């Protein structure tokens, strides 16, 4: 790993074909950002600033356009690419470039997640999906989250109950309800993602929902919904009359 990082650092920053430095000032994304603001830049130009340099035979904006074309100009698909994906699919992109891209995209995802938390009142399935979508939709693995609400259905907090699956053996009921009772939540909502982008529930999803609903009844806590995020779509157990 160390060797690849050092190789990537040796990329020729001043090479005319690959770098931003040889461009006219009016054409340089960095200078345009300073002059007109980030919103004046195209997606490819913003990506070029993140990449810093191109690769042999492709300047940095051309490389950026290649990357965007690979994901069909879909920023959601771009955010799902891993370090390994960038290195495997774009010749000359080493670990340092790939890590920079993944880190920047993760920061954008977290910003979206933080914005969702500002909408603290939950009135229905759309609100639950909107709260969790920035956090879950780009993951390449399953995560199971609990949203805790007070009597007015305002968000108290949320937490990840399991990572990597939603089977009854993975979701620890004791830990879940210890956390819920600590926060004195009156209601909860469940949410997990399907990396396959299909929002339809599996038998395991149905079994875990039933198990948690039964435990909620024992603790006098209202389970208002279980949302499954699949890409831009979601499935609501409440909307389907399954709670």
CATH class bucket of the largest domain: Alpha Beta
| Estimated share of beta-strand residues | 5-15%
Q: Tell me the total number of β-strands.
A: 5
SSE pattern: HHHHHHHHEEHEHEE
The largest sheet is: 5 strands, mixed
Going by CATH, the architecture of the largest domain would be 3-Layer(aba) Sandwich
Helix/strand-derived category reads alpha+beta
Ends distance:
49 Å
The shape, in one word, is: elongated
CATH-wise, what's the superfamily of the largest domain? Answer: Cytidine Deaminase, domain 2
Q: Give the radius of gyration.
A: 22 Å
CATH topology of the largest domain: Cytidine Deaminase, domain 2
Strand order of the largest sheet: 2-1-3-4-5
> Could you report the average pLDDT, rounded to the nearest whole number?
84
Keyphrases for this structure?
single chain, 243 residues, alpha+beta, Cytidine Deaminase, domain 2, 2 domains, five-stranded mixed β-sheet, disordered N terminus
